[in-house]
Design goal:
This protein is an alpha+beta fold. It has two domains: 126 residues, Alpha-Beta Plaits; 64 residues, 2-Layer Sandwich (Double Stranded RNA Binding Domain), CATH 3.30.160.20. Helices cover 28% and strands 29% of the residues. Strand 7 and strand 8 form a beta hairpin. It starts with 5 loop residues before the first strand and ends in a 6-residue tail after the last strand.
Amino acid sequence: MSGSDLTLRIGAGRGPVEARRFVAMLAEALRERLAARGISVCAVERHGDPRAPGRVALRLPAAAAELVSALVGTHRLTAELRGPRARRRWFAAVELAASDDPPALELPRHELDVRFVRARGPGGQNVNKRATAVQITHRPTGIAVQHDAHRSQARNRAAALELLHRAVRRHLHDRDHGRRRTDAWQARRELPTQHPVMGWRLHPTQADAIVPEEPSKR
């Protein structure tokens, strides 16, 4: 997938197992709905029990953004999943987001502490009289790398910078991704249920399948 791919996230927040069953059925229904409009799902990620996952992510091509925007919001299922006298309405949230691929990163020189040291060989012996090994520390994060595979100081420095870029990029991405997940979780703890974008009911003949509710007649 490219960095411009989209993710359609489906979840039930703190909903019970019946709401998570709705998540699984809704993911499959939306997948079929998108396929009918010529949009292929690149990948599907399920977190938890496949029949009652906590959340599902559908990876979509970026060109699908306009078509899927109408699906974003709260979805409602009206069904007797607990019996005829129990709760009949279940809710799930659908969100659209850009790919979580880490962005490009530039490390300013003033944030780097670069040291040249003698490369070490077996048993700790110095394999070079010149300081060809390179240690680079990224001051803001404290991440440090060392490279001494080459006999050239310049090549070791270039290789160390590449390692550091990858390490810092991964660190910042994981940190920010964790913050976004926490914020999203807090926002979804109680789903807004007043104005669902779509209503659903159980399929009359197929198990674990749903179909859109028919519009109410006035």
